[in-house]
Amino acid sequence: MGATPHLSFERDMVEVQEQIEKLLELAEKKGLNVSSELGELREKLNALRHETYQNLSPIDQVQVARHPRRPYTLDYIHRIFTDWIELHGDRAFRDDAAIVAGWARLDGESVMVIGHQKGRDMKANLHRNFGMPHPEGYRKALRLMRIAEKFGRPVVTLIDTPGAYPGIGAEKRGQAEAIAMNLREMARLQVPLISVVIGEGGSGGALALGVTDRILMLEHAIYSVISPEGCAAILWRSAEHRDKAAHALKLTSSDLHRLGVCDEVIPEPAGGAHADWDATASALGEGLRRHLAQLKTLSPQERREVRWAKFEAMGAWQEA
Hints:
Blueprint: H1 11-30, H2 35-53, H3 58-65, H4 73-80, E1 82-87, E2 99-106, E3 109-116, H5 122-128, H6 135-150, E4 155-161, H7 168-172, H8 175-188, E5 193-202, H9 203-207, E6 214-218, E7 222-224, H10 228-235, H11 242-249, H12 253-258, E8 264-266, H13 277-296, H14 300-312
Parallel strand pairs: 3-4, 4-5, 5-6, 5-7, 6-8
Antiparallel strand pairs: 1-2, 2-3
Helix pairs in contact: 1-2, 4-13, 6-8, 10-11
C-alpha cells in the first residue's frame, strides 16, 4: 500500500506514530527491550485516534471519505465475498471501468455486486475516470440488475463517486437519461436491494445505484446532492466557504441517519477505514448479512411497497 498520506487533523497521531517507529528502529539496532515504552506510546496513539475521530467536523468527514488509502469497492469485494466473477459492458457502446460489477457469493449465496471504483495512482485513476461513470457504466449496472432479477438473486451496490462524469461525450450519449432510467427501474425491481455508501456519495452519480430497500453508510462516508466546494462556489461565490457548506449540507452519516435517509451507520475502526481495511470489511459484511436476512422475510410486493414508501417519506418542507 505504500506510505499512508496524513490529513491535517491527524498531526498529533502522526507524531506519536513516528516516535513508535524510531523506538522500534533503535531497539533493533541496539538490541534493547522497549516493550514498556512501546506499550505506553501505543496506548497514547489509540486514545488519540478515538478522541480525534469522535470529534470530526463535517469538512473533516469529507476529507476522510476522500482519503486516498480508503478501501474501494474491489477491496471490499475480495474481503467479504467469494467466487467473484466480473462482468463487462453495456452491450451498446463499451465497458466503463468506473463501475465494476459481477457475480459473487456471500456465505454461499449468489449475489450481484455493483460498485463505483476509483484508482490508486494516476494511471489507474485515468483508467477508472476517478470513479466518475459515463452513461454506459450506468447502463452496464442496470443490465446486470436485470440479470439478477431474472435469476431471483439479491443486488448489493457499493457507492463511492464524486458524481457522474459531466463531459460532453457523456452528455451526448445520454448521461441524464441513463441515471433516470436506473432510478425508475431500481424502484421496480422485486429482488432484495442493498446499497452501501463506502466513501463519497456524490449527487445523481451516486443515487443511480442507491434506490434500494436499505441504504447503509460507513461511519465516515458522506452522501450529498453536491460537493461542499461546488455548493460554496454557487452560494458564496468562493470554494473557501466549503466548511460552512459542508455543515449546511448535512452530508455526514450521523446527519443522514437522523434525517431518515440512511438506515444504518456501519462503525469504522479507530482512525477510519483506511487504518484497518479488514476490520471495516468485517463490520460491513456483518451488516450486509443481517439486512439481507431481514429482506428475505418479505414478499417481492412487500419489498417494493416498503421501498416506495421509504423514498416518498424523505424530505420535508414548510410553506410560509
